[in-house]
Amino acid sequence: MKRRQLLTHAGLLGLSATLSSFDLKFPVLGLDPEKKRHGGQITLKLGKLELLVITDGHLYINPPQPIFAPGIAHERVKAAMSDNFIKDDGIDAAINILVIRKEDRIIIIDTGSGSLLGDQAGKFLKNLNHAGIQADEVTDVLITHLHGDHIGGLLDTKGSLNFKNARYYLSKPEHNFWMSKTPDFSKSKHDGSNADSIALARNIVSTIKNKLTLYDFGDILFDCIKTELAEGHTPGHPSLTIFSDDQSMRHIVDSVHSTLLIAHPEWGTQWDVNFQKGVSTRERILEEQATSKGLTMSCHLPWPGLGYITRNDEGYNWVPMPISTPDL
Ligand SMILES: [Zn+2]
Fold first, then answer.
1. In the chain, what's the furthest Cα-to-Cα distance?
2. Distance 113 CA to ligand 1 centre (A)
3. Residues around ligand 1, an ion, CB closer than 5 A
4. Ligand 1 centroid – CA 95 distance (Å)
5. Which of 135, 206, 251, 314 is buried deepest, with most CB atoms within 10 A?
6. In this predicted model, what pLDDT tens digit does every residue of 91-100 receive, in sequence order?
7. Does residue 325 form part of some domain?
8. Looking at the 3D structure of the chain, how many domains does it have?
9. Cis ω on the peptide bond leading into residue 304 (within 30° of 0)?
10. Tens of pLDDT along 46-100?
């Protein structure tokens, strides 16, 4: 950019009086140029809690069908994707991980995908370090459900725990489903083998079993997370309401993976262990969030997965939380 153009741009921002040279580092926003900055994280306050959302990367699904909207006419899906400003060649699912600082605790909700998804993901640990948190400082790991993109980051490449000093938490129904003799996938629309997923889930559970607490739905964890059953995606899949003082945020985890399924919750996904329950839970949660107008977080909606649900004539809309700077 030439100096004249720079000045023009700066003038538009009302800053021309401050410009005397090309030394234009961070001229507008008042950011400290000495502070080393990294992407991949965002922080906000919720009552007395500090929340961080940290990215693990993303998961690109191309073509979107049949994983999303199996059995729905392609032209309808394409039109709905266009209406929702999704590029029509694929669905790009974020992997957003919530970290909660509460007094001397550091609670992480899931661990990302580790090495399971290749280069596009597996960045949680690195980005956690960038946020000033070392893996050994994590006190609690709340596992929402036993899918690879949530538990793959629990182990390093040698199979050892990344979070050595943490206790682990998992719902009883989730544990019992994967550890049962023959987990029932008969109500899923996924047509491939589930053997790898089952093996991974069992390996993780056996690795953490001496540090594992199984919770019941309705339990309140760490005095700041209310747990509720939101089954369908998996049999023990939760919704988590994070609260402090008079503030709260509902983490809907994997009840919705894309804004396409907010517009059309009934179209569903092959990723749900029980397709119909996935649809009914999704519809219930979207209705509840549209009614409450409460802040919503999702693991896979576009980064950082924070926003609100509103109703329209046919379904719902996703309204991203207005974020002006990563340092909220
Ligand atoms: Zn997921």
1. 73
2. 9
3. 149, 254
4. 7
5. 251
6. 999 999 999 9
7. no
8. 2
9. yes
10. 999 999 999 999 999 999 999 999 999 999 999 999 999 998 789 999 999 999 9
